[in-house]
Structures are given as structure tokens and as C-alpha cells.
Amino acid sequence: MRMKMRRKKRKYKGRRAMLGIAAVAMLLLGILFVQGIRLQARAAQYTRRAKELERQIDEEEMRTEEIEEMRRYMQTDRYVEEVARDKLGLVYPDEVIFKPEE
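Predicted structure:
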């Protein structure tokens, strides 16, 4: 009779140990799953941020190109002539300007 009781206790202890190990394994899998979801969300956020930064870089490159084009234009005689006419009111000696009456 004692042998049967010992076998049952051993069997019960073995099942309890297996359930404990299974519970710990499930807990670890759950933690890994949650961390995986968090990492995926963070990766998606970084991807969106990288795309936004790429867009900003493209805009700044276009702006730099426009500024460089304006700088080259400002070094031409045509620009100097426009500024002299518009801001200073200068005209060529043989040129006649007609202004509308107010």
C-alpha cells in the first residue's frame, strides 16, 4: 500500500513540476510576444521618421538649388539693370518714360 502512495505522490509531484515549467514557458513566450509587438511599433515609427527626414532633405536640396540659381542671377548685368530701374529709378540717357497721371 505504501508503494502505491509513493508512486502517486511522485506522479503528482511530476505533474506539478511539468505544470510549473509549462507556466513559466508560457509566461516567457507572452513576454517575448509583447516585446516583439513593441519593437515592431518602434521600427514602424522609425521608418516613418526616416521618410519624413528624406522628404525634408529633398525640400532643402530644392531650396538650396533655388538659392544658388538666384545667386547666379544676381551676379548678372540684367539683375543690376533691373535693380537700378526699379529701386533707383535710373534710365538710359536716350530713354523716355511715360507715367500715367494720378
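Summary: The two ends are 126 Å apart (CA to CA).
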